Amino acid sequence: MIMAPSTVISPPGKPNAFAGVFSLLAPQMAALDTFLGGQLEAFEPEIRAMVNYCIDTSGKRIRPALVFLSGWKDPKHVSPDLVRAAAIVELVHLATLVHDDIMDSADLRRSRRTAVREFGPTAAVLLGDALFAHALHLAAHFPTTEVCAAVSESTRRVCAGEIVQTLRRGATDLTPAEYQRIIDLKTAELFRVSCFLGARLSGADDGYVGASNRFGRHLGIAYQIYDDLADFFGREEKIGKTLGTDLASGKLTLPLFALMDRLPVYERASLSEEIAGVRPARPALRVKQMLELGVFDAVEVAVQDEVSAARAALAEWPGRAPTPHLLSVGDVLLSQVASLRPVG
Amino acid sequence: MIMAPSTVISPPGKPNAFAGVFSLLAPQMAALDTFLGGQLEAFEPEIRAMVNYCIDTSGKRIRPALVFLSGWKDPKHVSPDLVRAAAIVELVHLATLVHDDIMDSADLRRSRRTAVREFGPTAAVLLGDALFAHALHLAAHFPTTEVCAAVSESTRRVCAGEIVQTLRRGATDLTPAEYQRIIDLKTAELFRVSCFLGARLSGADDGYVGASNRFGRHLGIAYQIYDDLADFFGREEKIGKTLGTDLASGKLTLPLFALMDRLPVYERASLSEEIAGVRPARPALRVKQMLELGVFDAVEVAVQDEVSAARAALAEWPGRAPTPHLLSVGDVLLSQVASLRPVG
């Protein structure tokens, strides 16, 4: 079910599209690896191997990157507070992935067996809980409760978004406003809090913290819309997952809304039936229609609009150190969307 | 699987055995009800009804009671800090119950449909996550990070204990030391942190906080051993669950260890096979043997030993306001164990 962003996977060895903009983060990411590796000791000996299995290093780590970039000072600056915050958002994200994979009965993630396949669903539920609990424990090591408060609230909102999505699966009366709300909660929230924490913990003033916060939220919405488009237009061998799963699993996303709007009235019923799961999904037909009817263009515009809103949040602060780096993440996302367009 | 303590349920309307000692907590429990009810507003509107379903008021609330009792000043004193802490430990407990019921595929809890039956497993996993996240969010409202740190660490330990129990289910080579470790983590931990928080937040000195902490841990171990004995000797209509489930589900508990020790060598293999699930469990036979071979007595002694250790923790502080109330909880537990003994 819930297709968290990182179900779009770069197979090991192939650089992900964000590798360029994130390459300047090598020292920070190395520090994050060291920090996460050191956390194993904090877990009870009996579950360390399982935790280690989950804390792999092959993810894109977009959320940690946003923490580092939004608190950017200079290439050599590796702030322990930012490393800790990056570990916290990554652990929360990993916990949601472990739980998502249980619910999706997913076999593989990042080309390895999922935790649920490796350890069974019972242990996987508890392992996700333990990862999340440890993230909050790390948050409690800051001098004030601000990080605990921000991370726990974000997590609750992510869960709420996923619950709504789950309950509305297969519902053909989902409204665009509900879709917007779901992706705002399930995806944009953790992007937002990553940018908030990076700015706050690097000592930025309230104005810039607020701007970074808004940037993160819009970037997260843009990212999820991109991910929903990639579900139809990605190349399977590139993104490492089966295409068309949203349609097959009854998840009404923006590309499907846009297609529904553009289909002749007499053709809408069959698409509704595919979403509702009462007839087999025909992803190839739907992709063809999406191209013919301008759905790709419309969704690309929606991503561009959100990236523009993200950019606008930083417009007053062009001279701050993080600003150009954050803007470049938006650029990469736009180029990713463009690269989904079939050639010829 | 994981039989958390409160799977021992008093049906609605019937007072639970702890009602006497907890009756003096009426003002505090009423404040807790009000507080928990007020928390619904904090959840996203879409999930409030589901959260409300989980935050019912029919549980025994032993953990909140321990918070209030370990921070006891006088009958009229209702401390907002203790109410908040009581809500936190109860929400963490409720979250673990929601997740336990998924893994056990349990249909009923407290004579109502479980969250997993009511909302489905996917929503139930996420709902448990949201309850836990909100508990930590409440913890972040204290002036310092101490409560966040204590609660998040406890939660991780509870999960670790449940993971170990899950992985070792059906294992006939589980050692008594492993059993001790499992119940220390999965049950005693939350009892301990409840007593720690009550004492700390009521302003007790470090010596008494430490004593309360140790009391809670030993009481929790005693409680779990009682619960494991009740799984064989409880009256079904009284405790509201099927008896002998630990044996049937391959969970090696102290009564089974004690029985194994006392069975003639040539009879041990068949019990091992029942634990391993390769032959049908025979709980009635095992209960009969437990009585004949002195297992009930031995397990009762084990509970008494832990209650004694709990009492010893408070021995230096007889004059402190919480002390007599905490000791009386131990007394009630001992009388509960005694009441399990079959008459005649």
Structure notes:
The structure is a homodimer of 344-residue chains. Chain A contains 17 helices and 2 strands. Chain A starts with 18 loop residues before the first helix and ends in a 5-residue tail after the last helix. The first copy, chain A, is globular and about 60 Å long. In chain A, helix 5 packs antiparallel against helix 7, helix 5 runs antiparallel to helix 9 and helix 8 runs antiparallel to helix 9. The first copy, chain A, has a two-stranded antiparallel ribbon. Chain A is mainly α and 344 residues long. At the A-B interface, helix 5, helix 7 and helix 8 of A face helix 5, helix 7 and helix 8 of B.
> Nearest-angstrom radius of gyration of chain A?
20 Å
Q: What's the oligomerization state?
A: homodimer
Structural class designation of chain A: mainly alpha
Instruction: Sketch the topology of chain A as an H/E string, one letter per element.
Output: HHHHHEEHHHHHHHHHHHH
Strand content of chain A: under 5%
User: Quick one: which chains have the greatest interface?
Assistant: A-B, 52 and 51 residues
Arithmetic mean pLDDT of chain A: 88
Helix content of chain A: 55-70%
Order of strands across the main sheet of chain A? 1-2
Distance between the termini of chain A: 32 Å
Sheet with most strands of chain A = 2 strands, antiparallel
Runs of chain A in which pLDDT lies below 50 for 5 or more consecutive residues are 1-15
**Count of DSSP-assigned helices of chain A:** 17
